[in-house]
Amino acid sequence: MSQNKTGLLGGTFNPVHRGHIELGLKIKAAFGLDRVLYILSAHPPHKKRQRVPAPELRLAMLRAALLPHPGLEPCDLELRRQGDSWTIDTVHELKAADPGGRFYFITGSEGFLKIRTWKEYRRILQEVFFIIVIRRRSHRRAVEKLLRQEGVPFGPEGAAAEQPPAAFLHAYVSDYLELSATAIRRKLSHGQDISPYVEKNVQTIMEDIKLYEEG
């Protein structure tokens, strides 16, 4: 039976940027993952009021960005599934496809602190390991408090867990850690250079169709 270690990194990727890629590479290396799946949120239920480009377009940018990085793989599972992109459904599908695999859900600390807004979040905590990237030092205490309240072991106790629930807290220093897709869209809409923040092939796609140029 497979013992593949798979990281799960979800997002709208609107657009995918160097921070997303660096995160996958660093987490893959730090935790000895076999691969990191970049799961495109096709119809994000928490962002229904925002104008989000078509999922097919965001997937094209994601594929272009990840192409040079073996082990970082785009995942269109939520695009192929009808309806809202709920994490619990995606987790169930991936686990059914690889029953012996070990799955690690990768999330920033600011996102994890909102986990109680997720559909069936307690089931998610019970079904996959969590890698929580501490984006700000002030988040650590709040994350640890939430984990204790939900009965999820972390630290040495979590590292010893053979099965979920368990969480790993991870921090690293990076020029890209605070990079946001919102800031990139704003720069592009104002005609500013975004080449330091996105891969060249992704920038080409955006420029060819004038994506984000109207804000």
What does this 3D model show about the protein?
The protein is an alpha/beta fold. The chain has a single domain, classed as HUPs (Rossmann fold, 3-Layer(aba) Sandwich), CATH 3.40.50. The protein has ten helices and six strands. It has helices at 18-31, 55-66, 77-80, 87-97, 109-112, 121-127, 139-150, 156-159, 181-189, 200-208, and strands at residues 5-11, 35-40, 72-75, 102-108, 129-133, 167-170. A six-stranded parallel sheet has the order 3-2-1-4-5-6, sandwiched between helices. Helix 2 (55-66) runs antiparallel to helix 10 (200-208). The longest helix has 14 residues, at 18-31. The N and C termini lie far apart (49 Å). The model has no long low-confidence stretch (mean pLDDT 92).
Question: Brief description of this entry?
Answer:
With 215 residues, this protein is of the alpha/beta class. The protein contains ten helices and six strands.
Highest CATH level, the class: Alpha Beta
- What CATH architecture would you give? 3-Layer(aba) Sandwich
| Euclidean distance between termini CA atoms | 49 Å
Mean pLDDT: 92
Secondary structure blueprint with pairings:
Layout: E1 5-11, H1 18-31, E2 35-40, H2 55-66, E3 72-75, H3 77-80, H4 87-97, E4 102-108, H5 109-112, H6 121-127, E5 129-133, H7 139-150, H8 156-159, E6 167-170, H9 181-189, H10 200-208
Parallel strand pairs: 1-2, 1-4, 2-3, 4-5, 5-6
Helix pairs in contact: 2-10
Give the tags:
globular, 6 strands, Rossmann fold, alpha/beta, six-stranded parallel beta sheet
